[in-house]
Amino acid sequence: MNQNTKNSIQILVVDDEKIIRDSCCRVLEKEGYSALGAVSGEEAIIRFNLEQFDLVLLDLKMPGIGGIETLRLLKEMNPEITIIIITGYPSIETAVKAIKLGAYDYITKPFNPEELRIAVNRALERKNLVKENQHLRKQLKSKNEADSIIGKSRTMGKIYELIRRTAPTDSTVLITGESGTGKELIARAIHDHSLREDKAFITIDCSSLVETLLESELFGHVKGSFTGAVQAKYGSFELANGGTFFFDEIGNLSLNIQAKLLRVIQEKEIKPVGSEKAHKVNVRIIAATNKDLKQAIAQKLFREDLYYRLNVIPIKIPPLRERKEDIPQLVNHFLKKYNRKRECPVTGTSPETMKLLIEHAWPGNVRELENAVERALIMEDGDTLLPRCFPWLIEKRQVKNAAENDKTYSLEELEKKHLQRVLDETGYHRGQAANLLGIDRKTLYKKIKKYGLEKSKE
Fold it and tell me: What pTM, to 2 d.p., does this model score?
């Protein structure tokens, strides 16, 4: 958080002990925040009505309205306010009650300035990042089909049903499939249809960070825990608290991080790097991978116990080559998506173009198809996508046809192919076919029967 941002933060310190109240305000002002004091719950409520506060430090034991009641009233006035409890009489029961009423955290007296700074910075960092995440989620939802899951095939229908049944639960989900099949879209759909939809959806790409950075990114760290840790950092798990945490390409996690993730799932708590204090977290975990995790287990690269913890609800996304009936719908979806900024939109594809697209195996799956359509739109000036917009696909077809033509056939195979070609050209007029082949009709009939070339009755 930069200094200009800190200067705009207003913090209310509520404590009946003047020395505590004043010292907290001094530490916070030295940190760059604006801090005001209140000697009681009554004064805190009055100030809260008159001014806007981003965070409240609230003592539990005060004369008059106590801390718990003040907490409840402040939360009624502004449910989004972040409150940190200050207590000299820590107890599990009191802490649990305060957290249930909406307090973010609590610190115990006596605390030093560094502990106060860490608690406040962590709370405000989480508040800001969750707000940014919610804003991004609203933008994603407003993208008029931009992130839709497309497909009418029977396989996709089963996946839609799994999403519908899975979303309202808190069960862990393991999504498997090749790269480019849309695993993150499935994860987002589960979150957006869950009871956590208004909370954070945090994604970590397990293949993009080295282990030391990934551990800090996931669990956070305390100041001085390693070289370069100049200040405490809030971990992604804490940012996702109450929401959903998505591990993309989880097969790339090291065994060390896997062990710590298993603890998160089992104990519902995390421990920042360099800290001895564990923090409770409430997150739903969804993971995805394009690897064979059972093979990774056999190779001692993935923990079997973690696999079974993650694989409570498995969802396997088929590659595009196994659901080619979805290609026309996907192509039309991408046309609409990329036409929005075009002055002359392409409204459709020619039958030959669609045939060309359906024939291709698409090893890069939906992502490759989307890139191909976007590239084709740049090349086409008319209102219809033609085969010429996919020159590389035409070239692949030509290479494939040439390879088939160069294939060595047996005499019987050659005779069968030649007979079929002549029958097709003559529209199965057997007299014309026999004349072209230079044989009599009786011989032609025998060969048609031999090779099973009778014309379909359809």
Answer: 0.59
